[in-house]
Amino acid sequence: MDEYRGKQVLITGGLGFIGSNLAICLVKSGASVTICDSLEPTCGANSFNIDPVRSDVTVIEADACDIDRMRRLVRGKEYVFSLAGHVSHSESMTDPFSDLRMNTVAPLTVLEACRQENRDARIIYTGTRQCYGRSATLPLVETQPLNPVDVNGINKMAGERYHNVYWMAHGISTVSLRLVNTYGPRQLVKHSRQGFAGWFIRQAIDGEEILIYGDGQQLRDLNYVDDVVNALLLAGVGGTLNGECLNLGGAAPLTLEEFVRVLLKITGKGAFRFVPFPSEARSIDVGNAYSSFENFQSLTGWTPRISIEEGLARTVEYYRQYRAHYW
Amino acid sequence: MDEYRGKQVLITGGLGFIGSNLAICLVKSGASVTICDSLEPTCGANSFNIDPVRSDVTVIEADACDIDRMRRLVRGKEYVFSLAGHVSHSESMTDPFSDLRMNTVAPLTVLEACRQENRDARIIYTGTRQCYGRSATLPLVETQPLNPVDVNGINKMAGERYHNVYWMAHGISTVSLRLVNTYGPRQLVKHSRQGFAGWFIRQAIDGEEILIYGDGQQLRDLNYVDDVVNALLLAGVGGTLNGECLNLGGAAPLTLEEFVRVLLKITGKGAFRFVPFPSEARSIDVGNAYSSFENFQSLTGWTPRISIEEGLARTVEYYRQYRAHYW
C-alpha cells in the first residue's frame, strides 16, 4: 500500500500479535515505524515477532499508560495504531483492574498525548466484536445496542468510544475497528487465555486432544491476521472515516467443530472432544457471534481474502518452524 | 421506608450531594449508616452536608478506589450505595484520567470488594442519562443505543455495565439508575462545573445575571434530590431488579429558560441573558434530553413528587440559611 511510504508511524503494542504483523507490513510499504511496547507479561509481546524487520524499526519499551512517554512518542507521527491492550475475556473477570488499565487508560493516554502534542495524527484503534455481547439477531451490525457480557468487553467499548469523542469534541482524526477472532503467525499461544484459535492451533500441532466447550456448534467468524492488517491499513488511509466504529467480519461463520476439523486435517494429528462449559466460561460466553462488515467494505473495499484452510495452513507452518519462540 | 430499619448500609461518596441526602433519609428510616468519602476536592463532598445526622452515622475517610479499604468496609453490609464519582462533563474533557479513575475504578473497586468479601450485599449504582448522548428520538428509553458524547458519559456507561456483568457472571445483586439533572440542598455550588442547576440557583440567590447558553430552549427533565433518594431506596429493596440499568426521569421536561424563570420568581432577584455556546460546551452538548421512567415506575411504583416550584423554593431556602457552608 503506497500511502504509507515515507510516513512516520507509531504502533503501541507493536511487539504483540497484530501489532508485529502490522509493523512488518508497514516496513515493507516503506513506512518509518516506531514500536512502543510495555512487554507486560499479561499482554502478547514477543520480541521474536519482529525478527524479519528488527533492523528496520525503532523499538521503545514504554507503557502506553505513561502520558509523558506517550507525549514524546506521538510527536511528528502521521499515523498512530493504538493496539496496546489486553485481549483475554477470562482474565478480565479475575483481574478486572489490569484489564481496565490496559483497555481504557492506555488508549485514553494515546488520545490525550495526541491532543496535547500532535492533533494532526491519525489514530487507528482496535475494538472488539465482544462489545455486542449476546445478540438475538445475527450478523452483528453497528446500529444495534452494545451489551458486553464481560469486563473486557466493557473496557474495550469504553476505549472505542473515547475515539469517537476525541473526534467529535477535539477534531482528532480517529477510526475504530471491531475485530472478530483473529488468528495467524505471532499470536501468543503459551496459554489458552488469549482466545481459542491460537490455543487449538498449538494443541493440534502437538497432537493433543482439543477440548471444545459445549456441543461445538457455536458459530464464529475468524480473520487471518494479514486480512486484519490490511483492514487497519485501509482504515488508516480512509480519511473520510472519522470517529467511526466499524465491524470487521470473517468471510463466513463456521462452527468451532468445523474450525477444529479443518485444523486437524492440516496438522494430520490431534483429536477433539466436547466437554461441558466450566461455569466461569459459561457465564461470559456469547453463544453464536459473527459480524457484518458491509459498512467497512463499502467504505474501503476491504474484504477478507485468506480462506480458513489457507490461513490455518500458513499458521501451522509458521509455528512448526519457529516453535521454540512461542511454546 | 421500613425495609431499611436496622440494616447495615454503606454509602460511598456519602458526604456528597445525593449521598448525604440519602444518608439523612436512611438514618431517619432506622438504618445503621456508614459513609465512606475521599473528600477529594474534585468531588462534591462537604462535611456540613451530614450535619443533621452527624452523631448517627459513621464517617470513614477512604478512597473508593482503595480495594483494601473497601474490602473491609463492605463486610457485613446489606446495602451498598455506590455513589462516589465525578459528575462534571466539562472537567472530564480537560482531565479525563481523573474522571476515568472516579467513574470506572471506584465503582469497579466496590464491586470487586463485594465479590471478594460479601457476595450477599445489594449494590445500588447511580448512572446518568448522559450515556445516551444526542438522541434523534425522545423521551430516552432503555432499549435505545448508548452514544455518550463526552468522557464522563463513557466512563459512567462503563461503570453501569460493570454492575450488569457482576450480576450476570458473579450473581452479585446490583441495580443501576440513570439519573437526570438532580438539584436540591447540599449540592456543590462553589463553581459551575457540576451542572447548571446548582450554579443557576446560586447566581439567582446572589442576584446575579445568569448566562444561558444558546437560545435557552433546550429541554431537560430535572429531579429534586428527595425524589432521587426515594428512587434509590426503592431500587435497593426492589429485589427483582438485578443487573438492570433503568431510567429515572422528571415529571415533565422544561426548557432552560423556563427553569430560570421559575427560579428568579422564587428568589425575587437576579436576571438572565442568552449567550452563544462556548465551543468546548457546544462540542459536548446533547441538545434536548429527557427520559422515560415508565419501566422503573412500573417495577417500583416510583414517581417524582416534588414540583419544580416546590423543589426550587426548598433549595433556595436551604442555601439562604446555610450559605456560609456552600459559597
Count helical runs of chain A.
Answer: 11
Structural class label of chain A: alpha/beta
Task: Provide the gyration radius of chain A in Å.
Answer: 19 Å
- Oligomeric assembly: homodimer
CATH fold type of chain A: Rossmann fold
Number of strands of chain A: 13
CATH class annotation of chain A: Alpha Beta
Reported for the largest beta sheet of chain A, the result is: 7 strands, parallel
The chain pair with the largest interface is: A-B, 33 and 33 residues
The helix content of chain A is 25-40%
Main traits of this protein?
Rossmann fold, alpha/beta, seven-stranded parallel beta sheet, 327 residues, homodimer, 40% helix
Topology overview:
2 copies of one chain form a homodimer.
Chain A: E1 8-12, H1 17-28, E2 32-37, E3 57-61, H2 67-74, E4 79-82, H3 89-94, H4 96-117, E5 122-128, H5 151-170, E6 173-179, E7 181-183, H6 196-205, E8 209-213, E9 219-220, E10 222-224, H7 225-237, E11 244-247, E12 254-255, H8 256-267, E13 271-275, H9 279-283, H10 294-300, H11 308-322
Parallel strand pairs in A: 1-2, 1-4, 2-3, 4-5, 5-6, 6-11, 7-10, 8-13
Antiparallel strand pairs in A: 9-12
Helix pairs in contact in A: 1-7, 2-4, 4-5, 6-8, 8-11
Structure description:
The structure is a homodimer of 327-residue chains. Chain A has 327 residues and is α/β, with parallel strands linked by helices. Chain A has a single domain, classed as NAD(P)-binding Rossmann-like Domain (Rossmann fold, 3-Layer(aba) Sandwich), CATH 3.40.50. Helix content of chain A is 40%, strand content 18%. Chain A has eleven helices and 13 strands. Chain A has a seven-stranded parallel sheet, sandwiched between helices. The longest helix of chain A has 22 residues. The interface between A and B is medium-sized, with 33 and 33 residues.
